[in-house]
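Ticket #4471: complex job returned nothing on first submit. Input attached below:
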Amino acid sequence: MDKRTIVLVIVVAAAVVLAGVATALYMRGGSGEGKVGYVTMAPSLMDGWLAANQSDAYIAWEPYVSSSVVAGTGRVIMWSDEIMPNHPCCVVAVWEDFLSTTDGSDLTLRFLKAHIEANRWMADALADPDGGNYSLLLGMAADFTLRSQAVVEEGLAHVEYGYEMGDDFLSALKEFTDMYVESDIITNETLDGLGYADVSEFIEDYVDESFLVLADAVEPSATILNPDDEDAVRLGYLSGDLHQLAQFVAQNTTVGEGKSLFEVYGLNVDPLPAYSNGGAVMDAFNLGDVDIGYLGAPPAIQKHANLDIPVRIIAQANSEGSGIVVHVDSDIHTLEDLVGRTVATPGETSIQHLLLRIALERAGISFVKA
Amino acid sequence: MVNSMPGTPTALARIKDAVVANWARLVLGIVSISVFIACWASVSYYLSESGNSLSPYLPGPLPVAEAFLDSFSDSVPGLTDTTMWDMIASSLIRVFWGFVLAMVVALPMGLAMGSFRVLDAMGKPLVEVFRPIPPLAWVPVFLMVFKSFWGPIGIVFLGVFFPILLNVIFGVKNVDQRLVDAARTLGAKRGTIFTKVVMPSIVPYMMTGIKVGLGVGWMCIVAAEMMPIQGGTGVGYYVWLSADYGRYDFTYATMLVIGLLSIMTTGVAEIIEKRVSRWMGLR
Amino acid sequence: MTACIEIRGLSKVFSSDKRRVVALESLDMEVVDGEFVCLLGPSGCGKTTVLRIVAGLEPATGGSVKVHGKQVSSAGPERGMVFQEFALFPWRTVRRNIEFGLEIRGVPEAKRGEISTKLIDLVGLKGFEDAHPDELSGGMRQRVGIARALANEPAVLLMDEPFGSLDAQTRNLMQKELLRIWSATKKTVLFVTHSVDEAVFLADRIMVMTARPGKIREVIPVSLPRPRDRTSAEFIAVRGKVLAELDEEFEKARKTELSPD
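Support reply: We reran it on our side without changes. The output follows.
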């Protein structure tokens, strides 16, 4: 080996070692010293990761919380309602262009009625654990989420289903939007450009309570208003999301005693293949693929503001129903214990991420990418 | 070539000479880019003025330029304490390690397969089965098995590995026989022929493989970062995230960064290749 | 006079699935220490094959090849070779090309430098020690080739049409240079060429080969004192003699080339 080759080998080796050191230092950056680090991933994978100790904690929506608990690998240290009681989670939104079709308003009202009745049915079923409807509900939940009945039973105990909106609902949405403006996700120029003086105006224009008011008066109908499958109401929703159970219940024919609730109110609904996240549902609205959709409030707000996607929020789907899960054997019991650890979230645009940020900020802890 | 002769032009003078000599090309280039930007601006302006629903998806050059510049000094929307520098660093780190790993495996493997027919016969079918699979197809598997730091690195590895391997094998098989003959008549036996003739001979082939591999690896990292499960930052991830928020001004700005980074990596690879060629006297 | 190279009954057959080519058949020849011998013949007669067999780059099919009494089996530095296309290592400088064989033998750096400097001077490349082959002209490259082979102090220098790639003037110059180097080093040289003129200018003895299958047709001694004058009557006479031998073989070679085997 001659001198030049030796020098070359040394230089290359030194460069690699240097790079290794730099990488180690840089990657260590995330969690540590008063910070909680996060990684993002699909919720369906979170329980597996936790069980394998790949992350210290995760926050997700049901049934992905109960799946760990029932499996005995996870323990909840905080429910989302402890962070923000009655916080809105998923909402029902309708596409403006759909509303302006001939029967658009009418169909929307019928849909909401079915949504309302489904919620009432679920409330009754849950109130009577020995009743037949309870096991029927468990079965439906298991079918929809592809989780076991034990898991969904646990999950159902923590989700608050409801359709009402109201002042608390509005102020919660305003709070979310304020946080987005503060972190530059939505700029004031954008709101300005849409014609709103402030966040308040934006939200109040976005949420339309008029449909709910009228929906409850809708009567069952023997005839279907939109019998042609081409005119069916195209329904969008998130895959396996226990929060959005109402629409699934409304499709079930036993609930309506031989008909689905949608059919009871003379509505032909086409449930589309599931979407993976709320952003996708908003994009689908924009493409004109969806007429009515269930999605999380945050993506509904973000994309409506930033992309002016023409939808309106017409009802709530659920509140609460998310939790922070740690490994059953871990020493983490409080929010403060998360300092220096890594939490998996469903993504920066999700409400879970937002709630965790709110909770940590209240405790004076930074929340950064791990 | 002797570089330090008196009267050698300085870098600045050389740039000036190049500009003067190529001014026509430069002017045309500038005109072309300006026209493009003007078209972009008009389309985006038209869309926003006419209230077209596509308008938020195509912000004009000004907002994108603003987003581009801001991203380097401030934290980008949606991520805390993260500037474009952090994201560039994340992606570059992954590409770097994927590249290093690929070299460490492909170089010896290529030398072995090129030198020994038995190994070549054994390795060839495996290579031919795996090479056509786009590295991105492995993302779901890799991210679960290797997790969020090593997963994308593994994807880059696959992208960089095959070009280097195949080029090195080819280089070994195409060593100039006359040089081998000469070495033998100078007393070299098999081992020495390998270290003193074969290995220096394959360097240009290896450099080609590296250049191609880096390009592929770079594309892999950006796409791999866009896949769901990954816990790092990275420019690819931010393209996806900014779009998820609806902040397309940052999406395009990030795409611009990616393009620039790609040019730079290729440029660096070419400079290294030229240097190595010169140092080895192989122009 | 000690025999440097002794070849008896050498035969070489190249066989593939399609053809069987008898390149050499019962070839006998001898080269004495310190001699400059040219192996001359038409294209395809196998002269390069003979050289490569002596160098140990090709195995003989039959017969014996001995250098200083030892049977030749593989290549080695005691039979240094100079190639028509120079075969210099492009990534090495002139000096490091020359030192190649010395490196292999583990000669320490300082000593290597001494040897290579002397050789660089000898072949007339002073000032170009650190140049790469691609910066040199053809003639210069071949000087490096010669120096490189000489560095190992070979028993014999085998040269395979070493000036075939050079232009006429450089060729003439290099022939003179070669003679100078040869007289300075007193090496035995076996020089393959198809140029009669070159052979007569350089050699002590010219071995004219037959067309394929090759054997030695005639050995013509050239006892003219060096430096030889190409225009002198004696030179022309020897040339004529050699040409006569060669022409017949050229005819035969031409016929073999044109007819399929």
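Strands of chain C lie at 3-15, 20-32, 36-40, 62-67, 70-71, 79-82, 156-160, 188-193, 205-209, 216-221. Closing as resolved unless it happens again.
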